[in-house]
Input
Amino acid sequence: MMRFMLLFSRQGRLRLQKWFTAMSEREKKKIIREMTTMVLARPPRTCNFLRWKDLKIVYKRYASLYFCLGVEDEENELLALEIIHRYVELLDKYFGNVCELDIIFNFEKAYFILDEFLMGGEIQETSKQIVNRAIESSDMLQEDDHSEWFEVELFG
Output
């Protein structure tokens, strides 16, 4: 089971965090600090797997963002790496070659995509097409709500 997923920049700025187990804010901040320090200190072209306390840390850098996943010790590292890659593919499909600014200015959509893909630290949906359809239908609902609000404002 996954414990957490973190997205942070090369400068160590946290861009997205998802916790799948309950922790205090103090523990979360400590983990974030340790993960960013540990991952950013590693030289390029090194293994993407780390052991940290009782967890395996799997990370991958895409452009200027690091995607970091904390999984339990008995979990498969390659599956965790594939989960990161699938999430990046979903973000790319939605944003069209996702970048750090997409995550910053559309963080609610990035969380929504993550929630459609993962739930409770487990994969909820493996099909990219089904997740993309859920995202598209959510966007359609938001557009309908926005257009109704706009009509009410215009025509009272």
Remarks:
- The mean pLDDT is 88.
- The first strand starts at residue 2 and ends at 9.
- The longest helix spans residues 128-155.
- The radius of gyration is 17 Å.
